């Protein structure tokens, strides 16, 4: 619950501190005194957008601070998710500079506005989850019925399954698009692949054929040169090898006359052996090299095919061509496998759909079970707040599966027992909507764990006994919840556990808003003024005293 609200430098508030009771807090005051300004300030610490134009003193900063007493279990999940320190007292502070910069803190730890807004949903109902304007909203109406059903785990389980179903649907659709697109290219890719498969190039084949072609086309020139070298080495009239052998023998005969001669003789012998080996290899190569016109034609054709495919696929090597062949193989095979994947996904999609339908049927039954008692309770409360002829009817019609089930839920309203029900947002007046919202809120509050409920002039358009009954409902709500209510009705003010009076005060040529907690006698006097005017009569005072006591 909200224990204390501190406001500094906001609108026409210089400095204000209000301590609230844990039950029914009523705020009254003249029109324009600044009652709604209190709620405007409170909304800032609940995550509303900040406007630097609201600063009372443009040279300073605006500070709004709320002190909440909370059950740790109520907000534990939020604090764990955002790694914040959780204490028994929760202090939320919002600061707005004259330049428009806004900062927010939870227990002195900086947080962003979305986090602040999320936290507020655990603490206060202030024109958000159950706002009068939302009464005609289908999402709000569904939330009301689901709050009464009060099976959040079932809804969460269904919602998780629905998200999985949507994910499978998206995957199936994407796979279908991929298949359709791939089918358009399949014939062409298969043609390209068949062409490469038919060519059947091995790694580096075209490069090796290029080398072979060079050899074949210069075969005669190569053989002539090799023959000449071999002839001069071994078969000439004075072969080089024979001359070298003779020179080595002559040098060896001098070995005993000079110490360096044996080494030179050995070197000549090595040269002789090396040249002999060279002559043998020249002869071997010469025997291998043959001019083959048919092979030249075959190699030329093969190279021509390779270079044509190089150009077609914009590559320069055989290995790059083989990489393309492998990629085309994967593409063609993947298209052929898509139908199998689609069939598996279609089956998974159908299974999830069947499970969702079964779960949604259970949810629908639970909603329908709550609808009739809800109607009766609301209609009873409507009579209590001065609308005896008004009727609410809940229409639940199964439709398409959605994230919350399969139901289209609509609140229908008949203000005059005409049995002509129409959507509540189209036929109910502002005053009727306010009272209807109060009746719904009083029922939903029993299921929704919101410790603080705030009503801003919920009494619009009522008076007398209807206003008294609104006060009774608020008083009953305050037994389990903290209620903060801005009102103009003395019948409601008389039910308060704490009565705050908002007034304007002139200080240093500036008009500011102040708030004070009224004593019992002050309450009686203010309620009497609400009944009969600025100078209350004795009857009004007695009536006020009776309301308070």
Automatic annotation (TrEMBL):
GO terms for molecular function: ATP binding. Keywords: ATP-binding, DNA damage, DNA repair, Nucleotide-binding. GO terms for cellular component: bacterial nucleoid. Signal peptide: none annotated. GO terms for biological process: DNA recombination; DNA repair; SOS response. It comes from the Bacteria. It holds the Pfam family SMC_N. NCBIfam families: recN. Belongs to the RecN family. May be involved in recombinational repair of damaged DNA. This is DNA repair protein RecN. It comes from Chitinophaga solisilvae. The gene is recN.
